[in-house]
Write a structure and sequence with these properties.
Layout (H helix, E strand, L loop, with lengths): L1 H11 L2 H17 L5 H17 L3 H21 L4 H25 L3 H16 L8 H18 L3 H50 L5 E2 L4 H35 L3 H21 L4 H23 L2 H16 L4 H26 L2 H20 L3 H25 L3 H24 L3 H17 L18 H4 L21 E8 L2 E3 L4 E9 L5 E7 L6 E5 L5 E3 L2 E9 L4 E10 L3 E3 L4 E5 L4 E6 L5 E4 L3 H12 L1
Parallel strand pairs: 1-12, 3-13
Antiparallel strand pairs: 2-4, 4-9, 5-8, 5-11, 6-9, 7-8, 10-13, 11-12
Helix pairs in contact: 1-2, 2-3, 3-4, 4-5, 5-6, 6-7, 7-8, 8-9, 9-10, 10-11, 11-12, 12-13, 13-14, 14-15, 15-16, 16-17
Length: 621
């Protein structure tokens, strides 16, 4: 029933179907208190994946951890399969960390997210099956740390870490490609065997059978990850350009900063035209980069038109934003741009209407920033507001004829200038503070309003793009592999006795075959069983040896059933031999699949003189 719910969700994207599926899985768990524990683990795995789709990352993490614990309990219950289930326990542990990383990222706790990604990398590095994924999560850790430094206004370290993420993503790309090549090579090597067996089965069974592709979901996920690396590289390059632009702006290199914002916009524009899947995540960065390009260009040129264009772009970003805090920050940017546009028009026209509009919009911007605890930006907006209010008093003083009122206006203006200079100094804008103090000196001396405000008011570079819009989450990676347990799934352990032997000595090989899947497995044969240099002495009575393959006579294995296959072989040639037997089976649907068994290397030595003498004495005795 649960699979119907998940299919309905895939078709409609209605959350109620996933919640129904979760309820079904939870009922199944309550019926399986005594085990088998691997089935309970798989049910928690299903629930965790569904909760991830529902963006319930905390709950998802809890269920991945429960899956990990139940795989561990199954490992304790079945010592012969302990290594297999411990690997899956670690795999689930990694995905529990992944969900924690996503939640921390959403909450903008980027350093915490970095710690979780580093934990994932360490877990995967400790496994045999998934170690190739290690650099991918090291890259994500570096990316999260870069975002954290960006928010802290430490662009130098942010740039270093974005560059580090690019290098690690490249290392991951190479690692994933190598894994895919190995899977393809493995399938090619064993493809002829599967074709031959299928041909035999079609002769025996007119309905025929189908080859089962190995690890389809894992391969599809790896291909998606592989395709994502180009997007991730360009994203990091775009972010580096944004950080470099912020550095230039803080240094007062406004035109160079504008060009760098333009470079970032071009990178994000290329991503939008090249990667359709990146549209939702990258579109805001493109708009923000453009907005800052126009803002800095407007600041350099004192252009009200450019400020107006920046305002429109910020409004576009706000419309596509779902996060309330981010909406308020964007709204603050919008008010700030409007204030600068009005201030620029006042500088051109000396129309007091524009001065009033600038003061009002600076106040609105400060209030918006304060609502989201964006205090430095709020203080910067207030400083600009006071600057314009001071100028307004200067205008009133210049028109006032009564000496006492005139002096009062000048006095108010001077206090506001001093206040604005102090606020900008406290915000780190010492150059602007110094300019206001110079202007204040001229005002005190000349008592005139002929000075221009355009060189004083400025866009606060303290506003980081990371604070402007939520940065992308990893949307490609997923906890694949669960589908393999839905049908028959053969795993095997092996034990080689006397693996250091001499020519003529018997070697015993035990292969324990286990069906860890839910469906029935029909064992067909074991291929790649023998190498030149050995002869087979003994096989199970219910099997037969035929042209180097051990025919298993359609031995049936139900779920969780185990079959021990004991072999005795004798070497007749010196050397080191690596066996990779292939257990071939079919599931209930008639799909033929296989599992490669890893055996320890067998080292065969010649019989030495001392061995011959010892053997001769033993025979005489």
């Amino acid at each position: 029933m649960s699979w119907i719910m998940t299919h309905l969700y895939d078709a409609t994207k209605k959350n109620e179907y996933l919640r129904n599926a979760i309820n079904i899985w939870q009922k199944d768990i309550s019926r399986l208190e005594a085990g088998p524990y691997n089935r309970v683990a798989e049910l928690h795995w299903n629930i965790a994946k569904a909760q991830d789709q529902l963006n319930e990352h905390v709950d998802s993490s809890v269920n991945f951890n429960k899956a990990s614990l139940f795989f561990l309990k199954e490992a304790e219950k079945k010592p012969s399969m302990a290594a297999f289930y411990r690997e899956y326990s670690r795999y689930m542990e990694a995905w529990a960390e992944f969900e924690k990383a996503k939640q921390a990222h959403i909450e903008k706790n980027y350093m915490e997210a970095k710690d979780h990604y580093q934990a994932i990398a360490s877990i995967f590095e400790s496994t045999a099956r998934w170690s190739y994924l290690t650099p991918n999560y090291q890259a994500w850790a570096s990316l999260e740390e870069a975002e954290a430094y960006s928010i802290k206004e430490n662009p130098v370290d942010a740039i270093r870490l974005f560059n580090g993420a690019i290098e690690l993503f490249e290392a991951s790309r190479a690692s994933v490609q190598t894994k895919l090549d190995l899977i393809d090579e493995y399938e090619r090597e064993n493809g002829d065997i599967i074709k031959r067996i299928n041909a035999q089965l079609k002769e025996e069974e007119p309905s025929g059978s189908n080859p089962a592709a190995k690890d389809v979901e894992e391969k599809e996920n790896l291909n998606r990850i592989l395709k994502s690396y180009a997007v991730r590289r360009e994203y990091c390059q775009g972010r580096i350009a944004l950080e470099e632009a912020a550095v230039m702006k803080k240094r007062g290199e406004i035109r160079e900063s504008s060009r760098k914002y333009g470079e970032a916009a071009r990178i994000f524009s290329h991503m939008l035209s090249s990667y359709e899947d990146a549209l939702t995540e990258i579109q805001p960065f493109y708009c923000i980069s453009q907005a800052w390009q126009y803002l800095t260009q407007a600041e350099a040129e004192a252009s009200p038109e450019k400020f107006g264009e920046a305002t429109k772009l910020f409004e576009n970003v706000k419309e596509s934003c779902s996060d309330e805090k981010t909406k308020k920050i964007i709204q603050g940017h919008t008010f700030f741009c409007k204030a600068l546009e009005s201030g620029s028009r006042f500088d051109d026209t000396r129309d007091l209407k524009h001065l009033s509009e600038a003061i009002e919009n600076f106040e609105n911007a400060a209030n918006q920033y304060q609502r989201v605890n964006f205090l430095e930006a709020s203080e910067h907006a207030k400083a600009n507001q006071r600057l314009f209010e001071a100028y307004g008093y200067m205008v009133k003083a210049s028109k006032e004829m009564e000496p006492q009122s005139k002096a009062a206006y000048y006095s108010m203006a001077e206090k506001l200038f001093e206040n604005a200079a102090g606020a900008l100094r406290d915000s780190g804008y010492h150059d602007k503070s110094d300019e206001i103090n110079l202007m204040l000196g001229r005002v005190r001396k000349e008592r005139e309003v002929a000075v221009s405000l355009s060189s004083i008011y400025s866009v606060p570079s303290i506003i980081s793009p990371s604070q402007t819009y939520p940065v992308p989450l990893p949307t490609v990676e997923s906890a694949v592999g669960l589908e393999k347990f839905e049908k028959a799934e053969i795993q095997a352990n092996s034990l080689v006795r006397n693996k250091q032997c001499r020519i003529g000595e018997q070697v015993e090989i035990d292969i324990e075959v286990v069906n860890v899947g839910k469906g029935k497995a029909t064992l067909l044969q074991i291929d790649h069983l023998l190498l030149d240099g050995f002869k087979v002495n003994k096989v199970p009575t219910w099997s037969r040896l035929e042209q180097g393959s051990l025919i298993l006579r359609n031995k049936a294995l139900k779920t969780q059933e185990i079959e021990d296959i004991a072999l005795t072989i004798t070497p007749y040639r010196k050397g080191e031999y690596s066996f990779r037997p292939l257990v071939v089976y079919k599931n209930d649907s008639g799909e033929v699949s296989y599992h490669m068994v890893s055996l320890d290397t067998i080292t065969v030595n010649e019989i030495g003189i001392s061995d011959w003498i010892r053997g001769s004495r033993e025979r005489k005795a």
